[in-house]
């Protein structure tokens, strides 16, 4: 991508191309900030981004001197978290739909006219067409247009509020139920009706101005609860482009409130909450808003709708309480497999290093019925691309459905029975950048399934389900699996000056720490954000959270080409290719983890953007974060800065060593 400040202020995850639409509007993805209300369990803080200013000459970050990781809690072992005499493994599962709520829809004729929409949307899809802000009235003809009859008689042309904000015409203004007077089912005015403001949802992950027009398959919050002795943990996966630590804490607080009401004797020791990173669900981070001028794409307000993020947090908390309420004696089976890259994966940034390992855990009750199946695999859930307007969990949906209910006989799969229970998909090493875009998916006859279609997405997910079912069948039963976890909360400096601007213009509502909010942002006064990492061991499986999109090589190495699948790890004629002689020699994160089955929980407990290996972290010399330097360095423009990975590595090394000392052999 080659773009200026106005564009880069709002950009995100880009596999390769600079845009995903004919308009050239940049695709957006991971950010470092939270756009929701303060967490009830978090300190209010003194940060006031409106009072801060930027030092225009600041470029170099403060040196990261003296950072030390601190182990906050270990269970069992710490006071108040003793081992207990009971050694029976107990497991429960819960699942809650998030996206079953009312919201306003746009008029379909305002979507872009395209020739590559999915099979359900006809010729119009994706972003609102570039003229949607012209405010020409209901006839969509402005003065000077051919056939212009004059101002609209209904007064919709050029109408504005008292602050001169236009009343746009791309929606009907019928409120959250999207039912207007005189239509079937109309029961009177509802919330948002007649306020001349779009009360719809903006879909995250690609470009701005992409409104939701309906639901193809719902976004979910899915949780497994695991108890051994006196230690109780939950692992939740939410269909979201990302959740921030502030929101994770809100979910934890609400879950404990529900448990206090329903099961007052229960003490929840740890709740891990991760995001699937779907690019086809409403914005939960703040970047993917609408009503943004395509010519100057600078958002003026967050893309997070309060009613949606509130429901997401509530349903996630309910899924946690539901899972805990379903705890019962259980057996555990663990397996793993390799999917390969054909039909699944592409690495859009050199060095080409791909982690295709899939991990699975199946928990069954004492009769052999499935309670839950956990699947861990890394890739961007973006098979539907940036022109889809129907809410979807992307490939996570058919993957989970295939594991639970079985795989149907389709153009690309044969019928196969499922396992029942609740399937939880956990994101893995998604950075790098791992993508299914531009990956041919063939049907059973060898013909390519149309790109960005729901048919392609279904076959993609069902084939992943096949791998998961194979891994369960070939797996091993685990006798008396112990449960132990350790956590560390710490601060990370935010050097990305685009994110500084986001804070200043109130795009984000995340608490900032370790800075003077009345001073100038720059060396010596760098904002920090608070985050958390956890390592959870369940028998031979060790799950470790990372607060963002981890490059696979940080977990598995592969600089020798061993994970490049016969592809050139770098291109011989690439003058900007990274110097692999400077790459770390290991051990890598999976190597230092205890247990036989290391799992990366990507976007676990936080989303702070891309986690780029330090040896290959490069920013523009004179316009750091505002402009990409030569080579493959898009991901740096969506990272908090060069200190994040070294701090994460330090924390994980400390926690892993502590777990080795405290955990089972």
Instruction: Specify the overall morphology.
Output: globular
Strand content: 15-25%
Report the sheet with the most strands, covering strand number, pairing sense and barrel closure.
5 strands, mixed
Number of strands: 25
Strand order of the largest sheet: 2-19-21-22-24
- What structural class do helix, strand and pairing data support? alpha/beta
Per DSSP, the total helix count is 9
Number of domains: 2
Helix share bin = 10-25%
Overall mean pLDDT stands at: 90
* CA-based gyration radius: 25 Å
For the terminal residues, how far apart are their CA atoms?
49 Å
Low-confidence stretches: 1-50
Outline the structure in words.
The chain has 665 residues and is α/β, with parallel strands linked by helices. The chain folds into two domains: 5-101 and 215-662, no CATH class; 107-197, no CATH class. Helix content is 16%, strand content 19%. The protein contains nine helices and 25 strands. It has helices at residues 5-8, 245-262, 306-325, 396-405, 454-473, 497-504, 552-556, 589-592, 644-662, and strands spanning 53-54, 73-75, 90-97, 111-113, 124-128, 214-215, 220-228, 231-238, 270-275, 328-329, 331-338, 346-347, 357-364, 370-377, 390-391, 422-427, 434-435, 476-478, 483-493, 520-521, 528-538, 541-545, 549-550, 597-601, 610-611. The protein has a five-stranded mixed beta sheet with strand order 2-19-21-22-24, with helices on one face. Strand 13 and strand 14 (370-377) form a beta hairpin. Helix 2 packs across helix 3 (306-325). The radius of gyration is 25 Å and the shape is globular. The two termini are 49 Å apart. Mean pLDDT is 90; it is low at 1-50.
């Amino acid at each position: 991508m080659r773009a200026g400040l106005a564009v880069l202020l709002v950009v995100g995850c880009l596999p390769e191309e600079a845009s995903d639409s004919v308009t050239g509007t940049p695709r957006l993805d991971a950010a470092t900030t939270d756009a929701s209300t303060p967490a009830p369990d978090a300190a209010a803080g003194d940060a006031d981004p409106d009072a801060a200013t930027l030092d225009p000459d600041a470029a170099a970050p403060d040196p990261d001197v003296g950072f030390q990781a601190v182990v906050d809690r270990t269970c069992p072992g710490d006071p108040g978290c003793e081992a207990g005499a009971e050694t029976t493994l107990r497991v429960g599962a819960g699942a809650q739909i998030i996206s079953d709520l009312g919201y306003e829809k746009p008029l379909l004729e305002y979507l872009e006219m395209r020739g590559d929409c999915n099979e359900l949307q006809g010729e119009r899809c994706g972003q609102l067409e570039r003229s949607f802000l012209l405010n020409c009235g209901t006839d969509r003809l402005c003065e000077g247009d051919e056939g212009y009859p004059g101002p609209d008689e209904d007064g919709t042309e050029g109408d504005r509020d008292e602050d001169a904000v236009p009343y746009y015409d791309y929606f009907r203004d019928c409120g959250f139920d999207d039912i207007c007077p005189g239509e079937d089912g109309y029961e009177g005015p509802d919330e948002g009706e007649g306020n001349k403001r779009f009360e719809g949802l903006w879909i995250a992950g690609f470009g701005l101005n992409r409104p939701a027009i309906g639901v193809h398959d719902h976004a979910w919050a899915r949780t497994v609860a695991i108890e051994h002795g006196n230690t109780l943990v939950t692992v939740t996966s939410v269909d979201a482009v990302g959740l921030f630590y502030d929101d994770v804490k809100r979910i934890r607080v609400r879950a404990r409130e529900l448990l206090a009401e329903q099961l007052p004797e229960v003490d929840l020791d740890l709740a891990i909450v991760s995001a699937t990173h779907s690019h086809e669900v409403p914005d939960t981070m703040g970047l993917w808003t609408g009503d943004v001028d395509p010519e100057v794409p600078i958002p003026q307000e967050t893309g997070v709708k309060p009613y949606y993020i509130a429901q997401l947090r509530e349903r996630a908390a309910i899924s946690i309480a539901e899972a805990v309420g379903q705890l019962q004696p259980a057996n555990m089976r663990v397996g793993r497999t390799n999917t390969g890259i054909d039909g699944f994966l592409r690495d859009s940034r050199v060095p080409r290093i791909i982690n295709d390992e899939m991990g699975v855990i199946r928990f069954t009750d004492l009769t052999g019925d499935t309670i839950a199946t956990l699947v861990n695999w890394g890739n961007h859930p973006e098979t539907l691309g940036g022109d889809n307007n129907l809410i979807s969990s992307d490939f996570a949906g058919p993957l989970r459905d295939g594991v639970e209910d079985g795989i149907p006989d389709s153009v690309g799969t044969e019928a196969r029975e499922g396992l029942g229970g609740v399937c939880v998909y956990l994101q893995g090493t998604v950075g790098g950048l791992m993508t299914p875009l531009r990956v041919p998916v063939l049907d059973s006859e060898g013909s390519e399934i149309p790109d960005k279609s729901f048919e392609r997405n279904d076959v993609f997910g069902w084939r992943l389900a096949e791998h998961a079912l194979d891994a369960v069948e070939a797996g091993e039963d685990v006798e008396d699996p112990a449960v132990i976890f350790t956590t560390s909360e710490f601060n990370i400096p935010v050097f990305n000056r685009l994110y500084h601007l986001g804070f200043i213009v109130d795009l984000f509502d995340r608490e900032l720490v370790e800075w003077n909010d009345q001073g100038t942002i720059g060396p010596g006064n760098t904002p920090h954000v608070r985050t958390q990492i956890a390592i959870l061991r369940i028998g031979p499986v060790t799950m470790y959270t990372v607060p963002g999109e981890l490059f696979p090589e940080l977990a598995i190495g592969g600089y020798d080409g061993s994970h490049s699948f016969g592809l050139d790890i770098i291109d011989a004629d690439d003058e900007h290719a990274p110097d692999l002689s400077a790459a770390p020699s290991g051990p890598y994160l999976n190597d230092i983890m205890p247990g036989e089955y290391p799992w990366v929980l990507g976007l676990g407990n936080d989303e702070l953007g891309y986690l780029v290996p330090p040896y290959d972290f490069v920013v523009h010399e004179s316009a750091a974060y505002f402009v990409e330097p030569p080579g493959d360095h898009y991901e740096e423009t969506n990272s908090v800065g060069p200190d994040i990975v070294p701090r994460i590595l330090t924390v994980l090394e400390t926690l892993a060593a502590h777990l080795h000392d405290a955990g089972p052999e």
